[in-house]
Amino acid sequence: MKKIECQEFDTKVLQKASQVVVLFSTDWSGSSLIVRGALHELEEEFGDKISFIEIDREQCQQICQDYGIKKVPTILFFKEGGVVEQLNGVPSKNTIHKILRKIN
Fold it and tell me: What is the arithmetic mean of pLDDT over 87-94?
């Protein structure tokens, strides 16, 4: 999973024709660490078709405001630049897997 800077959001997420999973997290959140681990494992299965991106919520506050991100972790699933699914909190790996299969 690649951590990107705020200014990379348009090119790495919105302008991608393929699917992108974006984890909004913070370095201090234990819940973010758990979700990051699950996404890392799922990236091994889906990484050739889906991009996995991480954004620091505290550094990219405007993006978070634009997408209504109020708490971490939050996962947004993008397809062709638009949000198709959202998960808040710590979803199970199985729940994330089902969404990845659906959007893939």
Answer: 96
> The pTM is what?
0.95
Residue 42: C-alpha distances to residues 9, 72, 99 (Å): 21, 19, 11
Sequence-ordered list of residues with C-beta below 8 angstroms from that of 97, at least 6 positions apart, any chain: 42, 45
Cα gap 103→25, rounded to integer Å: 22
DSSP 14: I
Q: Which domains does the chain have, with CATH numbers?
A: 2-103 (3.40.30.10)
23 and 53 Cβ atoms separated by less than 8 Å: yes
Place of tokens 């992108």: 20
The predicted model gives 65-84 an average pLDDT of 96
